[in-house]
Structures are given as C-alpha cells and as structure tokens.
Amino acid sequence: MKAVVFHGIGDIRLEDVDEPKIQEPNDAIVALTASAICGTDLHFIRGTVSGMEKGTILGHEGVGIVEELGRNVRNLSPGYRVVIPSTIGCGNCSYCRAGYYSQCNNANPKGSGTAFFGGPKTAGSLDGLQAEKARIPFANVGLVKLPEEVDDDDAILLSDIIPTAYMADENAQIKPGNTIAVFGLGPVGQFCVACAKFFDVGRIIAVDTIPSRLEMARAQGAEVIDFNQEDPTEAIKELTGGIGVDRVIDAVGVDANRPHSGPAAKAAEKKHGKEKEKTAPDAKPKNGNWEPGDASSMVLEWGVKCVAKAGTISLIGVYGKVDTYPIADAFEKNLTLMMGNCNHRRYLPHLIELVRIGALAPAEILTQREPMTSAIEAYKAFDKRQPGWIKVKLEPAAVEQVRAA
Fold it and tell me: Beta strands 392-395 and 144-145: pairing type?
C-alpha cells in the first residue's frame, strides 16, 4: 500500500509499505478514505520537535471503513464508517476513565508521552494515518461510528483539529461576555474562533499575518490584527481600553515566526533573533521548504503581555524546546496557565452531534482536497503557507477512483 514515510528531518517520501495486520485482541484494521496534513507533522520535518524514528508512517488524522477486527472489539463490525481520534487511550486506566485519554497509562508502553499516530519515539512510534490502511490499537474505545449526515470532509476535521480547538477554548475558561485573543490562525486557530461561540464569548481578537487566514477569521466575526503591520500587544491594549483580554489562546507553538516589518519587528529581532538555531539545530531547509519558525517563544511572551490581570492562558500549540517563559510576569499578574495534548475521544461524541445538526460546519475551513499520490507536493505547499492553503485533506487511491468515476 502507499504511505507517507518519514526518513529524516527534511526528508519524507511516498512509498510502498506492507499492509498492517491485527496484533492485539483490541486492534482494528481501517481502510482510510481520508487523511490530512497537520502543522504538527511539519514540526517533525522541520526538526523543531525531535525524536522521530526513520520509517514511521506520518499522519494522525483519519476517517475510514472498518475492514478487520480483533476478537475483543465487540462494538463494531466490518463495513462501519468511523473517525479515528488522533490520541490513543485504553479506556480502562484511571486517566481514561476520567476523560484524560491523552494521559493513558497503557497506550504508550514504548514511550513517555501521549500516544498518538505518526509521532516520535516518546509518543510510541506508532505508524500513522497518511496511508491506505492503518492498524488502530484499542479500537473498541477509540473508533467512533459516524452518522450518514457527517461526510468525510467534515469528519476528517473531527479526527484532531476540532476537538483540539474545543479543548483549547474549554481550557481558556471562557465566561459569557469575555474578550479573548487567539494567536495563530491556522486550522486550530480558526476552529478556536468557531468554537468560542459555544462558550458565549463576547469578542474575539485574532492575530496572524497571512492574509487568507486573517480574512477567514474576519469572516467568522473576529477582529483581526496583522503582526507585521501592528504590534499586537499594543493593538490589543488599544482595542480593550488598556485592560487586555480576559483569555488568551496560543494556537501557534514552537514554529512561531516573528514580525519582519512593522512596529514590533525591531524588538522581536533583538529578543528572539537567535532562537531558531537553538530550537532546531538539525534543521535541513531546502528550496524554501522545511524552514523552522524563527521565534519559538515569542507568542508565549505576547500572551502574558496582552492578557488582563487574573486572566487565563490556554496553550494548545505544540512546543518543543524553548529558551524562556515569562513566569515572573505571569506570577505577578495572578495568571492561570492551562495546557496539554488534546483528549480527543472525550469530545468526539458531542462534536459529532454538533456537526450532524448543522451547528458546526467544519468543511468551510477545508481549503484543499489532494490525492494521496500528490502528498509530497501538498506537504510542500502547506509548509510554505501558500495563499489559501489552510487545511489539506488527502484522499487514498480508492477514493480518487470513485471521484473519477
């Protein structure tokens, strides 16, 4: 079967690999009808998050058809259409039973962190979902059957992006009428804006610099700031009467880029100009691709500056190594910090229902649908943040053939 395989920093390939097989009684084999490219995948290729093992299939977002089941998977049947949560939980340990699936005691025996598909050694080095088929551990707990009303374009965004954004909003402790700031308007940031309405948010201020992202957030009702045109911390103070926002959501993470023009550029260069070499010393950029972010801790600083006293900061962007965190300033402002990997399985039933009844329209943020055969080219375009490339769905060969027919 075809799959996108990690061979090293700056080196991914579409290859023929062996089909997966049932290994444990709770396993399932799913034939993928949709996968997707995520900014987290780019962290591995850029070298800003380390520990990937050569030969690992990439990807942690998937929708498909159940093909084969282990003997202990009693709630599914071959032919069921399912969404695959990105993080993996056993369903039995105390963390899973409390809803903390990303902290499962049993899903990651080979690593030390959250178990998820297509990740580094600390995540278990489990083969990912950018493939024609995948083995799903603990399938009786993880796989969630999809209603007919939720098509693949919507469902692929339920696999990771929407639950991640929803948890980020929940962690931000948004109260009715609050003013929030969302930093980073990639797919997660866009859904942070979209999901905030379920928490009765008052105002949303959204910060990025890519025009298509800013326009998408504006269309959702956010007040937008281009950090290459304005200093976002000063702009937020002006927009909030000098008080700051009640809540900040950092949907950027370690690959943050600093302003290269405008009033914030000089200070950002002075403070963050040498971070890239420390954050990604083994980076291998090539022809404009796989370039690490050049200000890994910048949004951490901006968030603390622009949030009001006694406010909350929700960190959902993935971080690797960063030089500093302004903990003293956070302490002086009595801030609450919430962070961590998403407990996808906890949120999926509720979010699927929101999509089914039309309260949430995920496909509006899906900007590209590409065949698996074009995966590497799609990766490169997404990595370069080409105009309009906000979220990319990958379709295996079987789906391509159906579309052609």
Answer: unpaired
